[in-house]
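User: Predict the complex.
Assistant: Input components as received:
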Amino acid sequence: MIASIFDLTLCLVILAAAGAATLGRDAFMAVVFYIVYGILIAMAWLRLGAIDVALAEAAIGAGLTGVLLLAALARVARKAGKEPASAASVPATTIATALAALVITIGIAYAFLTLPEPQGLQGHVAENLAASGAENPVTAVLLNFRGWDTLLESIVLLAALLGIWTLAQDEAWGGRAGLRHVTRPGSVLAQFGRILPPIGLLVGVYLVWAGSKQPGGAFQGGTVLAAVWIVTIMAGLMQAPRVADRALRAALVIGPVIFLALAVAGIFAGAFLVLPPAHAGWLILAVEAVLTLSIAATLAMLVFGPPEPEEKR
Amino acid sequence: MTASALALALILTAPLFGALAAMLMGRRGPAIALATIIATAAGTLILLVIIATEGAVHLAIGGWEAPLGIQLRADGLAGGFIATTALVMGAILAVAAKPFAGGKTERRSAYTFWPLALLLWGALNAIFLSGDLFNLYVGLELLTLVAVALVGIEGKRETLAAALRYMMFALMGSLLYLLGAALLYAAHGTLDIALLAERVGSAPGDIVAAAAITGGLAAKTALFPFHAWLPPAHSGAPAPASAMLSGLVPKASFYILLRFWFEAAPDLAGSGVLMLLGGLGAFAMVYGSLLALHQDRLKLIIAYSTVAQLGYLFFIFPLAGGESAAQPWAAGAWSGAIFHALSHAMAKASMFLCAGLIIEAIGHDRLPGMKGIVRALPMTVFAFALAAITLMGLPPSGGFTAKYLMMTASFAAGQPFWALMLILAGLLAAAYLYRPLALAFALPDEDAPAPKAVSRARQFAPLALALAAILLGILSAAPFAFIQIGRPGAAVEGLE
Amino acid sequence: MSSWYLLVATGLLLTIAGALWRVWRGPEQADRMMAAQLVGTGGVGVILLLAAMSGDWAMLDVALVLALLAALAAIAFVKSTRGEGEGDPEDDTPEDRASEDGAPR
Amino acid sequence: MIDLFTIVMTAAGLIFFAAGTLGLIRFPDTHSRLHALTKADNLGLGLIALGLAVQVPGPADLFKLILIWALAILAAGATAQLVARIAAPAGLGDDEKAQDGGSDGQERRRP
């Protein structure tokens, strides 16, 4: 009874946040609602027993994406010289979009209600868990059973970064990503930038290490590490790297490169991306470790944005 | 280690390795691209031989069979698309080597172009080989992001707007597709296409899923009425990017539609759905052609032509799908449409590369300025003309074979409407391609500035592509048989 | 006991709903941001209670990540309000800004 | 007995949260809302964490619980100060700011 009340309340609050993010006139407000929405969705995932997803949502949805959107908003304001105007509403387009969304929602809801008993792959995963090299079934799926998806996804992140880099101005190319951040030594922000990173580092590494046994892993750990880096730079304790920096580029690609190399090595075992059960455990941990590095670097660079021209600093 | 595993690994990973290497070593893009072309072409050749001699190849990634793992499938269809992609990418990258050359200092567009182009290739190969609905989604996602970035790579304001619009359409498409795949997984407990074929029925969930997947993929293939993003995006990008975007990228979502309707859910393909898809295709064909007639810029003509040409790819659904699949004409309709997809990929990429070379020579692509360009760029204009022959469907091109096969099937199926539309499509293509060609061969204006010289070697790449499209028509017997390998329903008819 | 946890969690959700109202109402950006902070803290509280209720203490990691990243959005917000994104909000006298401008980079 | 402790502490935590929210909704200006909020929600979360501390199975989880609370205090304290600084100049022209969606310190932007 009380469980249903909780779930119902949660659903209503989620819908309210989503509605406000969509319908609100003010872009800043929409971003704040989006952040709030991420926090609420993480709770919903917990209620569904999907701790891994909740972790990812808390880290990426509520954490990093919010920062990304705030930075984007500030960038638009800077370029346009004023608060970005809310999207001019074109009645016909808006109505058509709303109608399409309504039809799709009704269709999905109807289909969902008529679904047979869900028959996922939990049984298959459990049967093969011992040979996967991971104790956490989610990690087993991500790094072994469906490792090819994960490998491609880690490259999707890089593609997004390349896309953002194409937005740089030509004369700024090669320079430091994003804006230069300055703080006064001893200020609240600077102190905060000193205290948080060690804790964050600990948490990030813990999440990766714990990932093979319990919820966690490269994506969640990498996001936390990216956040740590971002805080350090925003607090003015470090400069963002140059986009032409060799070490940065090596960090960006090392995860996917090692994962790809492992995939190719699998052909000696007769297929592609084969992890021999005897070695799967440490192989997964090694891949997770390098993936974490690459994901952290990529996500942080996504947030910093393209390099800005020197004279504007 | 088996030869097929080696071939598949090469095809899947060489472009991705190349992209990562290009990302690491900013100024070595062209050299890395060359190495990638060699490695991928080697893998492709091995795979083609294996498919031709031993039939379709199946590989469980990581050794995990469906439904747990992801299955790779390389049949004649996959082989045809992979080989065509390798050819087209090779030519495009050869032409791109000059404008995107490394140089002494790293430049933004030269740096980002190579990893993006190679990632695009890697995403295409991943899609063509995948037999898993979610893995296809990941491939599409990679393809979409890369394609959007390539549209905006020149950093001009209006191309960025086109890129954003493209992204909105494409992401909506991805989302719809993902919803459909999620519904199918919830209902049937698998994402594997072969397993889904045994399990998908006509429950409401299956129908909604099929609608979502089809709608999403149609938006990505720019099927009318989701075509609005295509012309500004394809014409705004730099020519080598346009060639990839127009020749290859929409084929990936079309390919997934084929896999879905012919393999995953053939029983769901009622005549209504198939007619709707074909009908929208016919509409797109007329609409795109008419708009192509009204353009005054070469790249826009070529881009609207893509809307039209993609349109009649969809005739494959009424002609070879559903109840037609078991009919004798299905093989012809199937191969015809695939021939069209492949020859269009070559011809359209060739045309955009030609347009790029013309822009290099005269500085713009407005039609009046092209007068007499044949004197400065004879090979380019010749290549353009050959590509035009394919797009019009004149013999002996691949486009002709495609139209011939589809028209025969259309009469055999008792649906002559599609044949009429195909004839109309050819006439309209001739009309909108006539203008640039006529101008190219006209006498130049006396006061026109002299075009800049473009090296012969670079003019050769589009010519090679256009010739390949013609050769596909001349040597059509072998590709016809090859594309049939592993075709769903082929065994029923005793064709092989 | 688990009913109690859920009861408190439901109560926390209601306070979150109240904070949402403030996000909507504003009027200052600072108001919206602070309200979002309250949602974050309340969310951490809810997750702690959910962990206790289900007995699955791995959920604490989610609360940990949320608490760690809660400050990130606020810092990004503060930073984004500076014209050029740089600078410390504590440097809010014109003289500070001027001296900083003159400083060698 | 342990459960009773948990019940009392979590209930007290909830009350603090409720009070904080009430302040957030009812107080008239940005600064007083800020004060109400930072004091209440951290104390609220602290009490809830304290109440649950006696329920955790092992020292590792206890450590996490403490860490969570410490992080929340740290984050809320620092951000409250920072946000207060942002809100400060805005107080001069509330009406105008409210119209264009809030303060963003543009007057200090360098060319």
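The two ends of chain B are 29 Å apart (CA to CA).
Let me know if you want any component modeled separately.
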